[in-house]
Amino acid sequence: MPLALLALAIGAFGIGTTEFVIMGLLPEVAGDFGVSIPTAGHLVTGYALGVVFGAPLMTVLGTKVSRKRMLMLLMGLFIAGNLLSALAPVFGVMLIGRVVASLAHGAFFGIGSVVAADLVAPDKKAGAIAMMFTGLTVANVIGVPLGTLIGQSIGWRVTFGIVAALGLVGLAGIARLVPDMPKPEGVRLRHELAAFKNVQVLLAMAMTVLGFGGVFAAITYIAPMMTHVAGFADGSVTWLLVLFGLGMVGGNLIGGRYADRALMPMLYVSLGALAVVLALFTLTAHNKIVAAVTIALIGALGFATVPPLQKRVLDQAHGAPTLASAVNIGAFNLGNALSAWLGGIVIAAGLGYTAPNWVGALLAASALVLAFVSAALERRDQVTGSVPADSVPAEERTAVSP
Q1: How many CB atoms lie within 10 A of CB 339?
Q2: Which of helix, strand or coil describes residue 223?
Q3: Per-residue pLDDT tens digits for 345-391
Q4: Distance CA 274, CA 308 (A)
Q5: What DSSP designation does 182 have?
Q6: pTM (2 d.p.)
Q7: How many CB atoms lie under 10 A from the CB of residue 344?
């Protein structure tokens, strides 16, 4: 794997840290600015919405420059947003800083996925994408717990200052290690938009929303579920989330490895197993040891879908994949928001803190159904000649052959 992937992973580590660390620092931020916890929660919502809308916006704005230069500009935006958050004199300014930082998120991962895939041979593309996303998964194991500890011990402003410094390291790495890869000739915005006419691209994005939404239906409410149902102490939730992060790291690497061999079968296995584990979580949540194992499995199976889904979008949006890739990153965050909302509904209905697990299982099962539909449509198109067999990646031809 090229050393340039390390620079992308460092940028991903910083982005992953700033996205999730705020959740553990809400009481400190709220107390400092004199606002309520629900009001401070707007820092989470604002970031998520910034990712959803910023991914296509920043990608469109970047169609006139090379991918390397756009990655550097995005890291600059990320640094500025985190510095603004660290130095914010009032809550409103910090909210603006969070939104500014979030605008870089989707486009960085979207463009970074394209760059990572272009750096390696065709049979290693998913592995390269997974290597970049390793930075995001490791952030949940190291960056978020350490950032939370620093923020609670020294001050939350120090945490965001450190994250901005990480952005500087990522920026320097991209400038030094990522080769200058100009935008493909002849590709214009209309070509990028044309990818959304492809039903396979839309199906892959729908699988992203539903599959990863299944994960966050459970994880969003992990704290009350583990403290009220499993009987863990409040302080144990941080280490349970570390287990979740370790699962993400392993699942991401496994997903990247096997997606390069057989992409669609990898999706069948990971989505199917995820649906089963989420359904079982309603039972395993009542036992501390089994619940901890289940949390790690959810992280592993959930993130095992990320490299194959991202590569699926790149393959199906061939010729103009940049915008579709970035929008698919927004789809992950859309799934997070949708599942958190649905999980809140079932809890509010009095169904208990384990009820979101059933929501997650149904979402993951729906994504699995779409995976079978996608493969069936691809088989039909190959039989009818709508899609020449040699235009489909080798691993997908294997996956959809009768």
Answers
A1: 26
A2: helix
A3: 888 888 888 888 999 999 999 999 999 999 898 888 777 765 544 34
A4: 15
A5: P
A6: 0.75
A7: 15
